[in-house]
Amino acid sequence: MVKVILKANSDKGLINRNIYGHFSEHLGRCIYEGLWVGEESPIPNTEGIRNDVLGALQKLNIPVLRWPGGCFADEYHWKDGVGPKSQRARMINTHWGGVEENNHFGTHEFMRLCELLGAEPYISGNLGSGTVQEMQEWVEYITFDGESPMANWRKQNGREEPWKLKYFGVGNENWGCGGNMRPEYYADEYRRYATYVRNYSGNQVYKIACGPNDSNYEWMEVLMREAARFMDGISLHYYTIPTGVWEDKGNATGFGEAEWFTTLKKTLFMDELLVKHSEIMDKYDPEGRVGIIVDEWGTWYNVEPGTNPGFLYQQNTMRDAVLAAVNLNIFNQHNKRVQMANLAQIVNVLQSLVLTEGDKMLLTPTYHVFDMYQVHMDAQRLDLSYESPGYTFGDETIPQLSLSASRNKDGVIHVTACNLSHTDELEVVCQLEAGQAASVSGQVLHHTDFGAFNTFEQPEEVKPAAWEGLVLENNTLRFVLPPASVGVVAVNG
Ligand code: AHR
């Protein structure tokens, strides 16, 4: 049993809704097949965007969607992807699988997808192989409301009104696939490119610099020292790879207890990364103006047998669900610095929300976690104090419990909780200090098999259920988390 004190009237700041953001890259079957099937497809669609996937994603109220990459972004030339589709450049997606890219999904299609989702677009510009002019013109094309070559071209291509574009990334992974740059060199390049990412017609761009890969603290140090004043946010990428070995990352399914434990242990490193990167940022930005944008995170396993290794297609189990929940709790906890996070990736790539096969679609366990956690979006984080019991495997121990709590604008308190242990249930006794709780309800995501997943034959093998047995007495909330589970509780005043 663990005792928790929840200060119901505390205020630890707003949880930016963008923490619940997503990422879509021209990679494998994410854009083509996953999101976009084209107007002529027999798969029911809205202006080329498949209806089943769209409907599922709309339910999540996705706040922000990143596009077009990823590594693809630094090879993408946006002008290839506008105008009549029959005339769009056909090319090879050299980075991802060497397949044809016909550019049918471009700027107009992405902005339309965001409109249909009600999501803010987050575009990653090409610094690695594109020009300053190309980047400047993209922003002009999208946002300028007046007479100019790019605005006129946009109008010719069927869009009279400019769009609003808030989030713009000036390069991606420029320490790696985005040009293999040194931090000093990238910092200078960032400053140059970002200068021409202009605010047209009242549109205010939130500029995001390419930040470090996991624990590259030197990259963060140099970027903050040399370029902090030219940026609004800086990215951080961290993928959870069970083995930590790139050549054999471990499989998405069929894993054992040791892999379960190691994967969760590795994912908890996200907390240390945020602590340490925040410390560096505090030196150069003590007011906390620059946000951490965790614009790629999630699990990365070996691809499913028989699939194109360049497509990064993987299944998604209860392990991914618990891992997603743990990370979202961590991001909530770091709500002062973390202003956005984007799970990689939304459909059919890495830790997806949705998988498709032809005209079939399934929701992954990770999808259900994002559904359950929606309640934290734009809510006030609440103070929690507790000491988690340890979860020991072999001679290693990690915390068994991961928690987060917030109060929404209607005064409803939500607690999200995960039990990392694959063997032991956990009773939580949560004393609500101040406030008067009247009723409680909740949902729990659990399966007797910690490796359970949804298939196209059995798409509802893993899904949340009403959480029976929640008790609220004398302002004390009690619940029992089954092993390897995620729960959400709503406490009404
Ligand atoms: O998400 C897959 C890839 O991982 C992205 O393209 C890249 O930015 C990262 O290395």
UniProtKB/TrEMBL annotation:
Keyword Hydrolase: yes
Residue ranges constituting the Alpha-L-arabinofuranosidase C-terminal domain according to the UniProt record: 295-485
Keywords from the UniProt entry: Carbohydrate metabolism, Glycosidase, Hydrolase
Any matching Pfam family: ASD1_dom
UniProt-listed InterPro entries: Alpha-L-AF_C, ASD1_cat, GH, Glyco_hydro_b
Pathway named in the protein's UniProt entry: Glycan metabolism
EC number(s) stated in the UniProt entry for this protein: 3.2.1.55
Enzyme class: hydrolase
Reactions mediated catalytically: Hydrolysis of terminal non-reducing alpha-L-arabinofuranoside residues in alpha-L-arabinosides
PANTHER family tied to this protein: ALPHA-L-ARABINOFURANOSIDASE C-RELATED (PTHR43576), INTRACELLULAR EXO-ALPHA-L-ARABINOFURANOSIDASE 2 (PTHR43576:SF2)
Similarity section: Belongs to the glycosyl hydrolase 51 family.
Subunit description: Homohexamer; trimer of dimers.
Protein name, UniProt field: non-reducing end alpha-L-arabinofuranosidase
Lineage: Bacteria, Bacillati, Bacillota, Bacilli, Bacillales
Gene: abf2
